[in-house]
Structure formats: structure tokens, C-alpha cells
Amino acid sequence: MHYIVEESPVLRKSGGPFELSESQQSVASVYPFKVSRYYADLIKSPGDAIWRQCIPDVEELWDDFQIADPLAETILSPVPGLIHRYPDRVVLLVSNRCPVYCRFCMRKRHVGTTGEVPLDPESLDRAVSYIRATPAIRDVILSGGDPLMLDDASLHTVLSRLRDIRHVRIIRIGTRIPVTMPERVTPELCRMLSLFHPLYVNTHFNHPDEITDKSSQACELLANAGIPLGNQSVLLRGVNDDSTVMRNLMTGLLELRVKPYYIHQMDLVKGTAHFRIPVSQGLEIIRALRGHISGMAVPHYVIDLPEGKGKVALLPEPIEMEGDILYLRTYQGERIAYREITIPQV
Ligand SMILES: *Cc1c(COP(=O)(O)O)cnc(C)c1O
Ligand code: SF4
After folding, report:
1. Which of 18, 72, 225, 228 yields a CA-CA distance of 20 to 30 A from 172?
2. pTM of this prediction?
């Protein structure tokens, strides 16, 4: 496997070089720091939404009550690098590198760590053998790290080996590259990916400031290659915990032909507590979306339950039922009694 050339973790601030403070460096010695030049240039001022996502914060070290792998991904790995939680789909971790190490990453325990590049050839062989021997698997999700950190030839190898397995119907790639290193999305990459349809890409925008000419162009290239695009955002304090920000993000994505798929409640991952907002606030944000903007732009709000119990979607209103009457709340807040009419079965 070959990685594409990694950008050096350099930030420029008002023309001059930016250096991490001593305390930020102590954080970076535990959780690696890296930011692509492109992404660093999106920072407008210290503490803004882009800054918070990529600059180490001492609060990462204060969090000592959460665990590194609450979703039990390691336990659910039948072979290294493969997570098999749902019967019909698996996650294949093909890289532990990314252009930016997001401070809130759910795989904080392994991204950017040295030495541990999950997909050595032997692990790939074992993962492919496992998938081949498990006909229930229809859907393989490439994740990491960022799968697009692999160079085109390595990615082609992985995709070919998966496409070779008849029961693998769908391939998905989860990648933040369109957001963090859009120049990686080249016409050649898109042409190569289009050989493996049906192939889906889910990307990861968290803030409207990440929608730029370059990231838009990356999405356009992928969409023009016939790749359906989805987006998974994470609710983050001080980044997107605001209904106007989320509305602008979701409608902006739809204009890029990116369908908002999930908004994730932050996983209970060690080192990320300072980003978490209460579920009640997340529900308020969803309420501010549903009905107010195109339904196409409204994602599912999900909690990924600890211990690998899976994702559960949350709705802003509980369903109230009395006999055949459902009490439903409209997007404008009105409570409506809706009588179900069903024809008795004969
Ligand atoms: C999220 C996830 C999936 C895919 O779930 P979908 O709801 O189908 O997108 C599969 N396996 C694991 C381990 C996951 O975390
Ligand atoms: S790009 Fe994804 S995998 Fe990489 S650090 Fe960010 S959230 Fe984690």
C-alpha cells in the first residue's frame, strides 16, 4: 500500500509561521496534530469553527472519564482492520492517516499514530477472505483514517478485490478529503472510482465555511462520475451547535448534490467531551430543520450506541397515540389529531 504525499503540519498565521504553544504541544504528543495547508487557510480567526476542529485544545487531556473505544470496534473485529457489527455490512479500515486530525475524531485512539497502518497486505488478505467467506455481507464501507489517503493504484487494488466478491453489492467510501484536501479529488481518481459502481461516497462537512470553490469542485467531480454523495456531520459545541449554521450547511450541501445523511450525536470517546452538546439541544436543531428547509436536506439525527449496539435515529417529537388517534406536531408547532383509517383485514 502506498500513501499519497502527506502535507506537513504547518499553519501560517497573518503571513508568519504558526507554532503550537507548549500546552498544545503536550496535547499533540498524546493525540497527533496535523492540518493541511488548504484547511489551515480556512481559519479566519483563532477559536472559530475551523480552528476548533483542527487545533489541539488542552481540554482534550482533561477528559479522563470516557473510554477510547466506547463502540467496541476492536471487540467487533473478526480480523484486524475489519469491523463487523451489522449482519450485512462491514467497515474496512484501510488507512490510519488523514490530511487533518480532527480533534473530535471518534477513532482518536488510532488516527495518526505511528507504526499502526492497519491495512498491511496480510491484513487485507485476511479481511478479503473473511468477507468472501461471509455471504451475508452485501455492503463494504471503506473507512479509516481516510481511505483517499491511499494512492490511486493502492485504492484500485482494494476496490478490485472487493468487487471480485459476488455477494458484495455496494461499496461505500467514507472520506473527509473533499473537505480537508479537495485537490486530492482529481479527474483520474474519479474515473477510477467509477469503474466500481455501485459506489457511494459519504463525506463529512461540519460547517458552511468548509463549502468553498475547491470543496465544491471536488464534490462536482465525484458527482459527475456518477457517484451518489452523502454527508455525515457531527454535532460539535462551538462549531455547528446552532440551527442557522446547520440550516445553511444542509441546504448548501444539497446544492453541491451532496445529500445530508446523518447528523451524529458525538460518540462517548475519550478526549472529546468538551465538544459534546446535550441531546435535547440536538433535537432542537433537528426541529429547526424539518419542514423549514427542503426535506432532501434533512438528515437523520443518530446516536451510535456504546458497545456496538448500533445507530438509533432520534426524532424531535415522541409519537403520542390514543386508540386510532395520533397526536402529531407540525413544523410550525401546532398539535394535530390525525385519525388513522385502516380497512379491517379479512
Ligand atoms: C455506521 C456503521 C455502519 C453503517 O451503518 P449505516 O446505517 O448503514 O450507514 C456499519 N458498520 C459500522 C460498524 C458502523 O459504525
Ligand atoms: S478525517 Fe475522519 S477519520 Fe480522519 S481525523 Fe477527521 S474525523 Fe477522524
Report:
1. 72
2. 0.94
